[in-house]
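Request: Give me one sample?
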Amino acid sequence: MVPPEFKYVCRGGPAPNEHVKAVHARGLRPSYDMGSAHDAKGALPRDKGALFAWMPHDGQHMIRHTKNIKAQVWLANDALARDDLLHCASLFRLMFHAGPHVRETWSAGVTLESYTTWAKAFPHHGLPIDRDHAWGIDSMASAYRIAPEEWRRDAREWFARVVDLFELASMPSGLIQRVNQRDLLNGEFDCCQSFQVMFLLHSMRCMNESVFRGVHETDFGRLADLHNRS
């Protein structure tokens, strides 16, 4: 979810400022500034020479970035990679936080607190979670292994709340994901995708092996049971 004030003009964001208008009017755009994202009726460019066309990763493909930094941490204990991993984990936690959330017309909320409220209202009915959350939890669990004790201590309650959420939201089959997607079953039924389910199972294993094993046996057992049922 992107707040309106952070959107591109062509995607419903605020009108361009006078500086942007002047640059376009005088033909001063740099070579990498292509397309018409500044126009309400415009579009983002797809040309490989356009800066807007490049995106290192997004939440659903976060592993494409974190796989490399995790390898650097494991193989070389690289200081910059350790910092990068903590950064990625913290960014996910900033999105999936346990603090209060104010509903907006454009979003009911995608936070840990919002999903917990949803699950309490409809227990064991599943949640609209996907690989975005799986890779985020993967990064949190990986960061937990190399983080300072202060960071780990602060993160433990967050992990415990994720286990509570998964257990409360899980359907009788053990599955958690439940989404309505127009290109699946014509949007007539809620469903889950097997590959995304596997990523979520991976995230459960990450939490158990990196956070709970030998330390928090109760949470370890709850998560292991849910993992095996799925």
In short: Residues 1-54 form one domain. The mean pLDDT is 91.
